[in-house]
Design a protein that fits this description.
The chain folds into two domains: 151 residues, HAD superfamily/HAD-like (Rossmann fold); 54 residues, no CATH class. 34% of the residues lie in helices and 13% in strands. The protein has seven helices and eight strands, in the order E-H-E-E-H-H-E-H-E-H-E-H-E-E-H. The strands form two sheets. The protein has a six-stranded parallel beta sheet with strand order 5-4-1-6-7-8, with helices on both faces. The structure holds magnesium ion (MG).
């Protein structure tokens, strides 16, 4: 279930400028690298040979991945204890800083609710101190609700094709961009560049977002 749709005013968002909605894990931050380090401290290993998180966690030497339930428990532990160590994606904070004088920015993350404070502190520490919304499940309905609060162009960035498709279905006027931060994941990520522009470099992505937000007429 998604949280109740947040009020843009309550988030400090004007609704009077273009809006960027941006994901955290594998977009603003190098999630897989940090989660991999966290797993190693617990005696597990991450093998990145497909784009499927819970099929990538192994006991050392094991042929079969960890049962998905155990992987999900480790994922929850990571957000409780290990996510503060995540490195920001190179270029992300600078790109958002260039956009922020002319656009409102909202961070939309599917991190578990107990991670809210840690996630907000992480954003602040890395020059990404924008309003944070935690979501659960498909992001399309929330992106549509946010987009409905402004007459100006809206853009959305995520690493997951399913989330980009969700936003396309719920809010087709929102400009969509796929960004996969981890170079090991880039060749494995399902992608559909004919539907959602794929840009894995934040400098290029920032320019493309700027074009979408500042050169399109209000919808
Ligand atoms: Mg993500």
């Amino acid at each position: 279930m998604a949280e109740r749709t947040p009020d843009l005013g309550g988030l400090g968002i004007s609704g009077e400028r273009p809006l960027l909605i941006v994901d955290v894990d594998e977009v603003l931050g190098l999630f897989m690298a940090a989660f991999g380090r966290f797993l190693e401290t617990g005696g597990y290993e991450m093998r990145i040979d497909r784009y499927a998180l819970f099929q990538s966690i192994f006991r050392p030497g094991a042929a079969e991945h960890l049962p998905v339930d155990e992987g999900k428990a480790l994922f929850a532990d990571f957000f409780r204890y290990g996510a503060a160590d995540m490195e920001p994606t190179p270029g992300a904070a600078a790109a958002l800083a260039r956009l922020s004088p002319r656009a409102d920015i909202v961070v939309l993350s599917n991190a578990p609710q107990p991670a809210r404070m840690a996630r907000a502190r992480w954003l602040g520490r890395h020059g990404l101190d924008y309003p944070l919304i935690l979501n659960n499940g498909p992001k399309g309905p929330l992106a549509a609700a946010l987009a409905a609060r402004t007459a100006h162009p809206v853009a959305f960035v995520d690493d997951l094709l399913s989330q980009l498709d969700s936003v396309q279905a719920a809010a087709p006027a929102v400009a969509r961009f796929q960004h996969v931060a981890d170079p090991r994941l880039q060749p494995l990520a399902p992608t559909a560049p004919e539907r959602h522009l794929r840009l894995d470099d934040w400098t290029d992505l920032g320019c493309a977002i700027g074009e979408a937000l500042f050169t399109r007429p209000p919808s």
